Structure formats: C-alpha cells, structure tokens
Amino acid sequence: MTWTRWTxxxxxxxxxxxxxxxxxxxxxxTAQAPAPAAMTHEQKVARGEYLTxxxxxxxxxxxxxxxxxxxxxxxxSGTELGWIGPWGTSYPRNLTPDMETGIGKWSEDDIxxxxxxxxxxxxxxxxxxxxxxxxxxxxxxxxxxxxxxxxTLPAISxxxxxxxxxxxxxxxxxxxxxxxxxxxxxxxxxxxxxxxx
Length: 197
Fold this sequence. Notes:
globular; mainly alpha; about 5% strand; Cytochrome Bc1 Complex, Chain D, domain 2; single chain
C-alpha cells in the first residue's frame, strides 16, 4: 500500500511541476512576442481608403452615387441630396480638406472624435442618416487611418446646403424618411417627463 501512495504522490508532484513549466513557457512566449509594427503613413492612408469604401462613405458623400454613377473625380465632396426626417433636412457634408467648404481646418483628432461621437469639431451634432453609432467601436488604427486618408483627398470647393429645420417643405432633390411605425418609434428616455404621463 505504501508503494502505491508514494507512486501517486510522486505522479501528482511531477504533473504539477510539468504544468508549472508549461505555464511558465507560455507566459514567456507571450511576453516575448514582438508588438505589431506601427503603420507607415502610406499604409494608414491605404487602410483609410479601403475602410471608407467598405463602410459606405461614398454612398452619401460622393456625388452621383445614388443615381448609379458616382463621380470619383469629386470623391467625398458632399452632395445636395437632402434627407428629410424628424430632425429636419440634412445634407452629406464635404469631407475633402478644402479649407472653406470641407474639413481642411480639422485635425485628425477632430475627425476621429466626429466619427466616434457624432459631434463635429464645433460641437454641433451630426444628423441622420449618418450612421455614426456604427463607428463608435472603431479601433484607433482604423479611425486614424480614415482621418489620414481624408486629409490626402484633393481639396474640392463645394458648399453643401445648410441643414433645414423640421417642417421645411421638401425640395425636388430630397429623400423623405417617412414617420416611424409604432415598432420603429424611438422610446422616450427614462428622464423624459412626458414618459410618465
């Protein structure tokens, strides 16, 4: 019986030592893994172009896209196709680095903040249909790649119409978002005094 107990105890001790060594080696390998190299400016710009393409930025911000013929010589310079909803009428902004009509005065940090928070550099909100909530979880690499790419676009002077208040009569180039069905209607916020009534 004594021999069996010693064999079991020795086996457990060997198993613990092997487990400790395995964990030690795994920790060492993880600690020694090299950090990924930072992207070069050219890589960031290429990544930003890719992301703005797959994320649908051209759909709204490049003239002609909704008519089946995007004009990439004016890529991301904004359109005059208005979107009407409860917020009023909004127009896709000029995202080129034009200093007067685009985002030329914005820093990369301003661009990233706008993409992630839905607030422009001046603090005004980004209006629908801009799907900024989809982009709140972009990694820093991706968000700053988009910003770097936008700063490299040719600056195009194009003043997009200013937003219009709710109740404004639709123009001939506007898309009207119908009122929401009961299923899609926004729920009142818990702190909203009308919610309790």
